[in-house]
Amino acid sequence: MTVKIYGSPMSRVSRVMWCARELNVPFEHVDVAWEDSKKPDFLAVNPNGKFPGFSDGDLKLFESLAINMYLAKKYGTGGLYPAKLEDEAAVFQWTLWAATEVEPLVMPALLVQLGYSKDEAGAKAAADKLPPVLKVLDGYLSDRQWLVGNSFTVADLNVATVVSLTHYGKVDISYVPNVVAWLGRCLARPARSPKAA
Ligand SMILES: N[C@@H](CCC(=O)N[C@@H](CS)C(=O)NCC(=O)O)C(=O)O
Question: Does domain 3-76 have CATH number 3.30.470.10?
């Protein structure tokens, strides 16, 4: 088995496992304890000392959403990964949008909920900036089911893993009903583990 996914499944590791399952790519999950993430063995896989770590043969990668785009392109072009250049560009757009515009506004609330942070005021201030951002996605989804083309792609998977953090962070997103409905469609996919975040 050439694909290995390293780290606690209760982390962004779940994103990559979801993607691999969507693609029916066999993988080895190497569970790494949180306290071992800064030790040399794991730093040799991901020098950031963060989960996930990933390898496919000799290739090592970090950044969960980039790993997903790699996996989808290698094992799912024409399916989970769109074949057309313009659609690939839309995958890049939505993935980077989720990572840069959405995740930083949701993560503080999640860290408070998980007990890693006590900065409730900071978490609220970040989450308060979310509505205009998510309304962009809501408007886009007003007349379509999926982000790119007519079927579920890695763009949906990547953005859904980020937007779903609102649930775990107890951030209300009921004001964007198209996003709520789309997120439900994404998270209902059989390849997603019930434990995924
Ligand atoms: N942008 C990175 C973030 C990686 C990350 O922060 N992972 C968390 C787990 S979900 C982690 O390992 N945190 C431990 C730490 O920051 O020391 C990615 O998407 O892979």
Answer: no
Note the pLDDT tens digit of each residue in 68-114.
999 999 999 999 999 999 999 999 999 999 999 999 999 999 999 99
* Ligand 1 within 6 A of CB of 12: yes
Phi, psi of 63, rounded to the nearest 5 degrees:
80, 105
Q: What is the pLDDT of residues 19-73, one digit of tens each?
A: 999 999 999 999 999 999 999 999 999 999 999 999 999 999 999 999 999 999 9
Is any atom of ligand 1 closer than 6 Å to the C-beta of 113? no
Residue 122 CA to ligand 1 centre (angstroms): 19
Q: Which fold has domain 85-187?
A: Glutathione S-transferase Yfyf (Class Pi); Chain A, domain 2 (1.20.1050)
Backbone phi and psi for residue 61, each to the nearest 5 degrees, phi listed first: -135, 150
Ranges for all domains in the chain classified under CATH 3.40.30.10? 3-76
Q: What distance in angstroms lies between residue 11's CA and the mean position of ligand 1's atoms? A: 8
Ligand 1 midpoint to CA 177 (Å): 29
Q: Dmax of the chain from CA atoms?
A: 49
Instruction: Count Cβ atoms within 10 A of the Cβ of residue 43 and give its class: 0-12 exposed, 13-18 middle, 19 or more buried.
Output: middle
pTM of the shown model: 0.96
Q: In the chain, which residues fall in CATH 1.20.1050.10?
A: 85-187
Residue 59 alpha carbon to ligand 1 centre in Å: 19
